[in-house]
Design a protein that fits this description.
By secondary structure, the protein is of the alpha/beta class. Helices cover 38% and strands 22% of the residues. The chain is built from ten helices and ten strands. The protein has an eight-stranded mixed β-sheet with strand order 1-2-4-3-5-6-9-10, with helices on both faces. A two-stranded antiparallel sheet has the order 7-8. The chain is globular and about 55 Å long.
């Protein structure tokens, strides 16, 4: 596996990266960042919930951040990426899926197909030219689906704790008797440390719909550069899922980066630095290709 170069940033971003983005900047810089922070906008869609988003205009390739299940566009990774893209002058888009964050809709009524449509909508209507898709957890699954559906809009992929097929494979890994009991009950609770309840609750209809979007059972027709970052201490989405993605994508340019102490959210200072350096390296690669 080739390692992503972690050379010092070429574009005057070293101070920001040392501090891992917005969270650790000096207070006077934080105040300036708040003044220049992108504003929330809403995209209206016929017969579909409005989507909340924040956008920076800038150079190509742009960067689009896809958050995880139950998360939103205001997390540390998403905000650090905005500051990074602003510093480089590249375009950037972050948004909330249907039922998430400030977007309309109900989370429990959403499906993988619903959120795939959200991603395709923002790519088609809110971005110009090829984009680097950065997907966290569920976003890592959705970025693969989007890249398959919109290859012309996908310059590169960066998966962070990618959860490709995860809901389906986790359910199918349960003992047969347990699955039958849950199917009769009509719902399944997936343990998680990231909710007050300690679990995410899914209906059988949700799981059956998700099966239609699984990608790991056959070669994945994606040929752009792919970078996959995963923590070995991820207790939510096992790191071997990123290995499976790497094995199945058809791209000849795939790197896997395993963080020995990395956990699922990958939001520690060094995790964010690695994410930013990885994207910086991809931008350099994409803009210097002859």
């Amino acid at each position: 596996m080739a390692a992503v170069s972690l050379r010092s940033c070429r574009r005057g971003l070293s101070q920001m990266l040392r501090n891992a983005g917005l969270a650790a900047l000096p207070s006077q810089h934080l105040q300036a960042d708040r003044r220049h922070k992108s504003t929330v906008q809403f995209a209206a869609r016929a017969d579909l919930p409005k989507l909340a988003y924040r956008r920076l205009n800038g150079k190509s390739p742009g960067v689009v951040f896809l958050p995880g299940y139950g998360s939103n566009m205001n997390g540390q990774k998403a905000e650090a990426l905005e500051e990074f893209c602003r510093s480089l002058g590249h375009s950037y888009l972050r948004f909330d899926y249907t039922g998430h964050g400030a977007s309309d809709g109900v989370l429990a009524e959403g499906t993988v197909g619903t959120w795939k449509k959200d991603v395709l909508f923002v790519l088609d209507e809110l971005t110009e030219g090829p984009q680097i898709l950065v997907g966290s957890s569920l976003g890592g699954w959705l970025m693969l689906l989007a890249a398959i559906a919109r290859p012309e809009k996908t310059a590169a992929l960066v998966g962070i704790a990618s959860a490709a097929d995860h809901f389906v494979t986790s359910f199918n890994a349960l003992p047969l008797e347990t699955r039958k009991e849950l199917e009769a009950k009509g719902e399944w609770s997936l343990p998680s440390k990231h909710t007050e309840e300690g679990f995410y609750k899914f209906s059988m209809d949700f799981l059956r719909e998700a099966e239609n979007h699984c990608v790991l059972q056959s070669p994945i027709p994606i040929t752009c550069p792919v970078r996959l970052i995963h923590g070995l201490k991820d207790e939510d989405v096992p790191w071997h899922i990123s290995m499976q993605v790497a094995e199945r994508v058809l791209s000849p340019d795939v790197d896997i980066i395993l963080r020995r102490n990395g956990q699922h959210r990958m939001s520690e200072k060094d995790d964010i630095k690695l994410m930013v350096y990885t994207i910086d390296d991809l931008i350099d690669k994409l803009t210097t290709l002859v």
